[in-house]
Amino acid sequence: MTRPSDYKMVVVVRTDLGMSVGKMVAQACHAAVAASEESKRTHTKHWRRWRDTGGRKVALEAESLEELEALARRAEELGIVNVLIEDAGHTEVPPGSVTCLGVGPDQAMRIDLVTGDLPLLK
Amino acid sequence: MTRPSDYKMVVVVRTDLGMSVGKMVAQACHAAVAASEESKRTHTKHWRRWRDTGGRKVALEAESLEELEALARRAEELGIVNVLIEDAGHTEVPPGSVTCLGVGPDQAMRIDLVTGDLPLLK
Lengths: 122, 122
What we know:
homodimer, Bit1, four-stranded mixed beta sheet, 43% helix
């Protein structure tokens, strides 16, 4: 059961780009650090609660750029931190490819309004 | 060529635990956020330079707990930020399993003294 006191960050990774595991990990780390930094600055109270309750992070998957952008818009409408990560494109994917999205940290119930229907990254 | 002005963070992920990709991504995100936070606090100048030059992150692999702990000791000896991540163990791995290691951010040349021999995470 998700309680109002539960906090999490979600990182949504695109699976349609054919990235290696190492590439996905590095891109997701960009999203996590960027979303944490932005949340700390703009949603300090939520950020502290998240950190102090274990800093939970969940990796989910999306299959297209359009899906990732729609999730970012939905988060924005709800006032939830969202950070799209563009790869510099030195390896594996074309320059400027959007590889993943960081959402939150925020209350898990709010995050689920954005990413609740997505499958776990396998 | 690595120049003294190059900065990076490395996340070393254990491949011997049989973690799913999603699990590896989430654990690596823990390492990246924790190492960034610690570096910001204790190595502020290096942290700023890293952030302002793109916040480069690289995912490497190790095959055992012993290897990860040896890397952490080596980083410690050199005064480089190092954070071992223990999983709460609700899924996939036994509680308290050390899953990955965040190193830096710091000058890439210094980081390479710790992780220069490790393969990229595939």
